[in-house]
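Thread: Newbie trying to understand structure tokens

Hi all, I'm a second-year student working on a class project, and my supervisor (Dr. K.) asked me to get a predicted structure for one chain before our next meeting. I've only ever worked with sequences, so writing a 3D structure as a token string is new to me. If someone could post the tokens and maybe explain what I'm looking at, I'd be very grateful. Here's the chain:
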Amino acid sequence: MLSRSFLLATLFMGLVAAGCGSSHNAKTSSTTTSSQVTTTTTSTTTTTTTAPPGVVPAVGLKSYVTSVPSPNLVANISYPILGGMASNQIESNINATIYKAVTGYVASFEKQLQNVSPTTTGAGGPAGNGAEQSQISGSFTKELVDSRYVSFKFLISTYAVAAASPTTESESLTFDLGSGDLLSLSSLFSTTNYLQTISTLSRTAINAKLGQSANQAFVNLGTQPNATNFASWNLTNTGFELTFSQGQVAPMASGVVTIEIPYSQLSAVAKSPGPLTKP
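---
Reply by user tm_fold:
Sure, no problem. This is what the structure looks like when written as tokens:
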């Protein structure tokens, strides 16, 4: 959490997206409108409450905005907030987990900045405006929203003073709406060799997507069979989506790389029943 010297504000604004059913399934980019408010710290206790099936939550938008004087950092990250669930407790727990993850993204970047000298002069920020100020910003997309799961992808852009340009990383959060649990990658699979399967399938998909521009050294290194390489994953209506941060499976100039593996190709290693066998 950001609390070393001075925490100005968290900015909240909810835009409740009313509706249900398939209208929530499309990928939707977030936008930010905000005004500052004072933030307070709360704690959440995880429970084993189970919600009745069949309710598709509404997804609204909030923004986490803060400014830290040392290091000289500003943050502005949009994130989803759920509403309309049958269980208020599960809804509250999920929203608290999302908020904790977003503040964690900022805290992690703030920690990295401890190695950047405050007197270093960079290129003037991403906009080239001459400001010696590090920045972190982010938006999310709804990869899947139905009565069983919600799956959100975040693109987080960071800029450190003296860096040549911003860097974009991908993060993801997927929840079981019945229990409120944040799903882990390993919870989707029934076998211990699932990482090798994902590695093999992702290399094929990346090479097909990038074509002649694929750099095999990058592809092989960024898809080695370890959980860290596949930490940013999402459920969609049609397949298991993997997003690789800038510079992970291709040169930095290629940006973020996203692929989708059809669920049918994972049937041999997927937990059944489970999110990959009944998406």
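A couple of things are worth pointing out once you decode it. The two ends are 34 Å apart (CA to CA). The first strand starts at residue 10 and ends at 11. Feel free to ask follow-ups in this thread.
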